[in-house]
Amino acid sequence: MKLQKSSPTEMALELRALCLSRNTTIEMIKDRGYTTTQEVQSLESFHERYPFALTKRSTLNFVCVDVDRPVGIHFGDDEKMGKKGFEGLLSQYEKDNIFHLILILPQFPSPTVMSMISLNPKFNVEIFLVEEMVFNKTKHSWVPPHRILSREEKENVLKALKLGPGDLPRILKSDVIARYYGAKRGDVMEIVRRSRTAGESIYYRIVVER
Q1: How many Cβ atoms from other residues are within 10 Å of residue 76's Cβ?
Q2: Which ranges carry the RNA polymerase subunit H/Rpb5 C-terminal domain (predicted)?
Q3: Which of 9, 37, 63, 195 is the most buried (most CB within 10 A)?
Q4: Edge-to-edge strand list for the sheet holding 100-105
Q5: Counting beta carbons within 10 angstroms of the beta carbon of residue 63, is it exposed (0 to 12), middle (13 to 18) or buried (19 or more)?
Q6: CATH 3.40.1340.10 in the chain, residues?
Q7: Which of 202, 207, 165, 210 shows the shortest CA–CA distance to 185?
Q8: Tens of pLDDT along 31-62?
Q9: Contact criterion met (CB below 8 Å) for 51 and 12
């Protein structure tokens, strides 16, 4: 990041974006049921705790826990992550036995890195952009509550509806809400829609790649 070319206003906006995106990330992992001691912060407390956030975003990193597996939350320092930086990142986390990474980046990595992610069976790497995490979209009034069913719940729902998984309507794995909850292919998401006239309606969607 070339701060010498940034105006005070631009720096203030970027600091705000980092604060809000980290807050949304914390909300996201809690909504997934992960365990963390991190809490959302006001801009003032964020600036006090992370005075070098603009020059070294990685100071915002932390580790949370999914059941008994650690998950690394990593804010990338590079404007665009390349192959060398990504390989170093994987090596760093592998030493700590962390194989699930959530990367919060200024922009998407190079095509080479995206290919490496899709072909790496050892690591589960999720990517979110800082700008898309500034606002928690699940809190929008137009977005109904979503949740991923457990395996047992999925089986019970399919049995009750007398349907196979492929008979359910689909939701893409790349859907913004599916990504927020970390949905995987084959998961079934429950969506609760509320209406003043129709009351509460429950819908189910199966997660697909495309």
Answers
A1: 21
A2: 135-207
A3: 63
A4: 62-66, 69-75, 100-105, 124-129
A5: middle
A6: 8-135
A7: 207
A8: 999 999 999 999 999 999 999 999 999 999 99
A9: no
